[in-house]
Write a structure and sequence with these properties.
Thiol Ester Dehydrase, Chain A; Acyl-CoA thioesterase; six-stranded antiparallel β-sheet; alpha+beta; 4-hydroxybenzoyl-CoA_TE; fatty acyl-CoA hydrolase activity; HotDog_dom_sf; hydrolase; globular
């Protein structure tokens, strides 16, 4: 079975502090790796390093652990937008060991469009939906 197409793939070298007592990447660290993937997605999507203007907040994360990863391995963080709803959108992720392509993690997250000044969720801005669909090269309706 072939790997799905990913919009952004970013290499990551785990740090020693990411490991547990057995030398594996600790399970709690993977949420941070997903955040790094979102950061790389945003950088490619907006061609901008300013993460302070991200118009969303994280609402949900689901992770399936498939195999161990070790500090000396390079991991590929794979991400794509999976849907855009009225006020939210989803990301799909895979984390793979770079050389063997071994699947380490499959994950999903839901983000909510958010007005930080009002501290409230907002509807998906139409221009944001259009930009996501252009960046992904496909329709993103639920």
């Amino acid at each position: 079975m072939s790997e799905p197409k990913w919009t952004v793939v970013a290499p990551l070298r785990p740090r020693f502090r990411d490991t547990d007592a057995m030398g594996h990447i600790n399970n709690a660290v993977y949420v941070t790796y997903l955040e790094v993937a979102r950061q790389e997605y945003w950088r490619a999507f907006k061609d901008d390093e300013n993460y302070r203007v991200v118009p969303f907040i994280l609402a949900r994360v689901e992770i399936d652990f498939r195999s161990e990863a070790l500090m000396h391995e390079t991991l590929d963080l794979c991400i794509r937008c999976s849907f855009i709803g009225g006020k939210s959108f989803g990301f799909d992720y895979e984390i793979r060991e770079q050389k063997t392509r071994r699947l380490v993690v499959k994950a999903t997250s839901v983000q909510v469009f958010y007005d930080y000044a009002a501290k409230a969720s907002i509807p998906c801005p139409p221009e944001m939906r259009a930009r996501f669909e252009a960046f992904e090269g496909r329709a993103l309706a639920r």
